[in-house]
């Protein structure tokens, strides 16, 4: 047995279930102006206050008339014009037609529109007449309520407001929406070896990529981020940052110090200040991931290795945050793909190997190639990837040509 397939590690699926069971959906809501509501989580169902479209109207620039008035021999006099926003106001004599533009209210009594390309216009005594080809009754009319009817439920709580949802709400004339308040998420890195990008590295030092990468992931969510920077490997200093984070935030995310080294204080402090929910999962990368509760917040301890920090944030923290923020998210998409390279894997932990999938245009099949060495400190394995090849805990090496599942990166990793 190798170092990394020790028994007693909690399966990833169980960890997700336990975290979901140990967090609650934020209860406070607020009203948000529609134009600021992008990415917020809807807190109540939206019923349409009106019919869409609100009136029968033309789908084409052309001519509107009563189908029953149409005659092959007699051209129709054009008695006026209807524009979008400027309805035709007069009377329409039997056999008359109206010049009409796309979106204009269909004058009462008319039922058919012909696009102008299918109309032949003549002019006699300063009066216009039109004849039409290829006419079908009721064509080119958009009926009141054919899209949405008053009272229809158009969105349900838990929906994250994408540009599509914002557009729909704008169609309905809704200026404010009730959303869940934003979660406050505190983040910090731990480690004496960490410098910030832009600083000069000393002997034995590296750059703090975890806090910055995790922050970038969180910036794609409707959360307020409290960035507490880098905390040295000092128990007292770490304790005070834990306490500050817990007093100010709903969620605390640290990176590093969750393993068993002499300067790994994270789990110890979680035990002292709160409760450890679980520690150590059958996941690769990310085995020492810790979850627990502080007096006022939920705590996620990401492992220090850079790939481990990003993968555990993605696979374990993000779904739990979604639940806390009230977001009823769709599960991640996976599709079958053929390996164009073998993958090395020891049975024991569910492995989120990174791959680059492409669509083979000849066969219509997805194929996926490894991004190379998959060590949890090899961050370049993330960069050329566009998703994971998640290999179940029990599986071993995969051969070229094997069919595997491919999981495209979620939007916060793209
Ligand atoms: N004896 C054992 N050693 C280790 C085990 C184990 O089970 N037994 N697990 C290994 C695994 S797996 C991982 S993952 C790491 C996790 O360790 P920690 O969470 O305690 O992280 P550190 O020791 O602080 O750092 C690990 C590694 O990552 C670098 N690091 C830390 N923070 C950052 C940051 N913000 N940005 C970039 N890189 C960071 C750090 O310099 C180390 O190289 O433990 C293994 N060891
Ligand atoms: O395998 Mo650790 O879990 O990420 O380096």
From TrEMBL:
Reaction(s) catalysed by this chain's protein: adenylyl-molybdopterin + molybdate = Mo-molybdopterin + AMP + H(+)
InterPro entries the record matches: MoaB/Mog-like_dom_sf, MoaB/Mog_dom, MoCF_biosynth_CS, MoeA-like, MoeA_C_domain_IV, MoeA_C_domain_IV_sf, MoeA_linker/N, MoeA_linker/N_sf
SUPFAM superfamilies on file: MoeA C-terminal domain-like, MoeA N-terminal region -like, Molybdenum cofactor biosynthesis proteins
EC number: 2.10.1.1
Residue ranges occupied by any MoaB/Mog domain in the UniProt entry: 186-323
Enzyme class of the recorded protein, top EC level: transferase
Cofactor(s) for this UniProt protein: Mg(2+)
GO cellular component term of the entry, any: cytosol
Gene Ontology molecular function: any one: molybdopterin molybdotransferase activity
UniProt KW Transit peptide keyword: no
BP-aspect Gene Ontology terms: Mo-molybdopterin cofactor biosynthetic process
Listed pathway(s): Cofactor biosynthesis; molybdopterin biosynthesis
UniProt-listed SMART domains: MoCF_biosynth (SM00852)
Key words, A-Z: Magnesium, Metal-binding, Molybdenum, Molybdenum cofactor biosynthesis, Transferase
Keyword presence, NADP: no
Function: Catalyzes the insertion of molybdate into adenylated molybdopterin with the concomitant release of AMP.
Similarity field: Belongs to the MoeA family.
Protein name: Molybdopterin molybdenumtransferase
């Amino acid at each position: 047995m190798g170092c990394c397939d020790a028994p007693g590690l909690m399966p990833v699926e169980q960890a997700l279930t336990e975290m979901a069971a140990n967090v609650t959906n934020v209860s406070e809501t607020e009203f948000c102006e529609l134009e600021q509501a992008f990415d917020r989580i809807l807190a109540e169902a939206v019923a349409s206050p009106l019919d869409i479209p609100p009136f029968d109207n033309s789908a084409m620039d052309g001519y509107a008339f009563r189908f029953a008035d149409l005659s092959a021999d007699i051209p129709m006099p054009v008695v006026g014009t209807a524009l979008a926003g400027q309805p035709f106001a007069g009377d329409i004599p039997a056999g008359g037609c109206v010049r009409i533009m796309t979106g204009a209210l269909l004058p009462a009594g008319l039922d058919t529109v012909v696009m102008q390309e299918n109309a032949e216009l003549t002019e006699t005594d300063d009066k216009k007449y039109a004849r039409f080809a290829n006419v079908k009754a009721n064509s080119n009319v958009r009926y009141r309520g054919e899209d949405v009817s008053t009272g229809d439920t158009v969105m349900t709580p838990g929906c994250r407001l994408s540009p599509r949802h914002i557009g729909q709400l704008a169609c309905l004339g809704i200026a404010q929406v009730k959303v869940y308040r934003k979660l406050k998420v505190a983040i910090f890195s731990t480690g004496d070896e960490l410098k910030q990008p832009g600083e000069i590295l000393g002997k034995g030092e590296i750059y703090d990529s975890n806090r910055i990468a995790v922050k970038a992931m969180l910036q794609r969510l409707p959360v307020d981020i409290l960035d507490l920077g880098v905390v040295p490997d000092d128990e007292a200093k770490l304790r005070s940052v834990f306490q500050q984070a817990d007093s100010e935030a709903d969620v605390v995310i640290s990176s590093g110090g969750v393993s068993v080294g002499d300067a790994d204080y994270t789990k110890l402090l979680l035990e002292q200040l709160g409760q450890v929910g679980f520690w150590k999962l059958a996941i690769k990368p990310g085995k020492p991931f810790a979850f627990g509760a502080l007096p006022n917040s939920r705590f996620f301890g990401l492992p220090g290795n850079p790939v481990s920090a990003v993968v555990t944030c993605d696979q374990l923290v993000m779904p739990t945050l979604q639940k806390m923020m009230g977001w009823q998210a769709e599960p991640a998409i996976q599709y079958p793909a053929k390996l164009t390279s073998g993958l090395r894997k020891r049975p024991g932990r569910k492995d989120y190997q990174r791959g680059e999938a492409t669509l083979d245009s000849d066969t219509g099949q997805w194929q996926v190639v490894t991004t190379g060495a998959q060590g949890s400190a090899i961050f370049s394995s993330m960069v050329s990837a566009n998703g994971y090849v998640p290999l179940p805990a029990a599986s071993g090496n995969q051969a070229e040509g094997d069919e595997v599942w491919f999981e495209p990166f979620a939007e916060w990793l793209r």
